[in-house]
């Protein structure tokens, strides 16, 4: 799995959700094309002491200088990352990258080792840190220098009892609609001590009118809230529909939120009423016309 940045794009590319494997190498080398593999690292509690390896590859033509730094992060309700020095459950002080700076020639690759040292007072549960591989602006360049970076999240599980607890705290849906598609937005909270992956077959789903409407893949960090939206593409023509979004825990307890949508095809009803009125008016005119005719002697 790889994250690729070509030329000048975002200051940092960092993903929290499982990503599809890269389709291949860049077909033509550019001035800047940096990849880091894997795109994220998960460190189980029983493998803390085993070093992890990142492969950093320069697919560009020119040599680049790379700085390896680390940052605390959390996630907003929209799923976007927030780099904050005071982010909760940070492992930023526990990890060391070797080397933390190096030059990489065009077309070359290098291994960077990640070492983890837990403090004696580390709280059980999962902690996270972002490893950021940056290329500083070249000195003497014209205009504004841009730092180009690729980031990879690292999740470290401290030994101890892990708690998995996810709650669906809210569900927004239109109370009244005339047709689809309809937007459904769920609010999910992770009250446990480890992240929760809603991906693949384990995606969050809405049950409505006998249909299953899946939400997009996402990762919910420990202690985080997330609003996630999907679209119900093809609702029925008429329905008083109950929408349910549920998240099952490992203890077998399911937490859910519900909403009701009334779907009423106002346009069709209006057209039907208009047709009935036209027929009724025609019948009345015909009846009046028939009455106005003289009776034959």
Instruction: Compute the number of structural domains.
Output: 2
Helical content band: under 10%
Q: Flag low-confidence runs.
A: 1-11, 17-27
Number of helices: 1
Structural class: mainly beta
Describe the secondary-structure layout:
Layout: E1 3-6, E2 33-37, E3 41-43, E4 52-58, E5 64-71, E6 73-75, E7 81-83, E8 95-98, E9 101-104, E10 109-116, E11 125-135, E12 148-158, E13 166-172, E14 176-177, E15 182-190, E16 196-198, E17 205-208, E18 211-214, E19 218-220, E20 225-232, E21 239-248, E22 254-263, H1 266-292
Provide structural commentary.
It comes from Plantactinospora soyae. Residues 1-24 form the signal peptide. The chain crosses the membrane at residues 268-286. The protein folds into 2 domains: 3-158, Immunoglobulin-like (Sandwich), CATH 2.60.40; 166-263, Sandwich (Immunoglobulin-like). It is mostly beta strands. The strands form 6 sheets. The protein has a 5-stranded antiparallel sheet with strand order 1-2-4-10-8, with no helix packed on it. It contains 1 helix and 22 strands. Residues 1-11 and 17-27 have low confidence and may be disordered. It is elongated. The longest helix has 27 residues, at 266-292.
Keywords:
single chain, 297 residues, mainly beta, Immunoglobulin-like, five-stranded antiparallel beta sheet, 1 helix, disordered N terminus
Quick structural overview:
With 297 residues, the chain is mostly beta strands. It is built from one helix and 22 strands. The protein has one helix at residues 266-292, and strands at residues 3-6, 33-37, 41-43, 52-58, 64-71, 73-75, 81-83, 95-98, 101-104, 109-116, 125-135, 148-158, 166-172, 176-177, 182-190, 196-198, 205-208, 211-214, 218-220, 225-232, 239-248, 254-263.
């Amino acid at each position: 799995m790889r994250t690729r940045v070509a030329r000048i794009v975002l200051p940092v590319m960092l993903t929290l959700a499982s990503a599809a494997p890269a389709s291949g190498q860049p077909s033509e080398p550019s001035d800047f094309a940096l990849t880091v593999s894997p795109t994220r690292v998960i460190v189980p509690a029983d493998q803390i002491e085993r070093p992890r390896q990142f492969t950093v590859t320069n697919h560009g033509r020119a040599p680049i200088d790379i700085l390896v730094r680390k940052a605390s992060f959390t996630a907003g309700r929209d799923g976007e990352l927030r780099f904050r020095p005071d982010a909760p459950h940070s492992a930023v002080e526990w990890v060391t990258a070797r080397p933390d700076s190096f030059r990489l020639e065009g077309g070359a690759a290098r291994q960077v080792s990640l070492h983890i040292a837990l403090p004696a007072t580390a709280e059980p549960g999962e902690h996270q840190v972002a490893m950021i591989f940056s290329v500083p602006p070249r000195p003497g360049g014209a205009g504004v220098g841009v730092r180009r970076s690729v980031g990879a999240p690292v999740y470290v599980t401290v030994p101890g009892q892990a708690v998995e607890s996810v709650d669906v705290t809210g569900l927004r849906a239109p109370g009244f609609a005339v047709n689809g598609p309809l937007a459904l937005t769920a609010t999910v909270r992770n009250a446990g001590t480890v992240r929760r992956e809603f991906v693949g077959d384990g995606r969050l789903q809405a049950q409505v009118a006998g249909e299953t409407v899946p939400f997009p893949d996402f990762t919910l960090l420990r202690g985080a809230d997330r609003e996630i939206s999907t679209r119900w593409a093809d609702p029925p023509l008429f329905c008083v529909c109950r929408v349910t979004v549920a998240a099952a825990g490992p203890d077998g307890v399911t937490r859910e939120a519900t909403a009701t949508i009334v779907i009423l095809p106002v346009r069709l009803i209006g057209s039907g009423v208009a047709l009935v009125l036209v027929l009724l008016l025609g019948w009345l005119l015909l009846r009046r016309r028939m009455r106005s005719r003289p009776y034959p002697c």
